[in-house]
Amino acid sequence: MKKALLLLASLLPAAAWAHPGHNGIGLFHHLNDLLPIIALVIIVAGVMLWKKRS
């Protein structure tokens, strides 16, 4: 139970401070850096699902 709570707390954006050199707070302070990759993965997955269904 302790591990589950710790995992849940570590996944919350406000659970951790950004490392030095950043002004962001939380685990998701690199979201702007990762957003193009995340968008590409979503687009590719959508195209694959669309092709599979048609």
TrEMBL record:
The chain crosses the membrane at residues 34-50. Residues 1-18 form the signal peptide. It comes from the Bacteria. Keywords: Membrane, Signal, Transmembrane, Transmembrane helix. This is Uncharacterized protein. It comes from Shewanella loihica (strain ATCC BAA-1088 / PV-4).
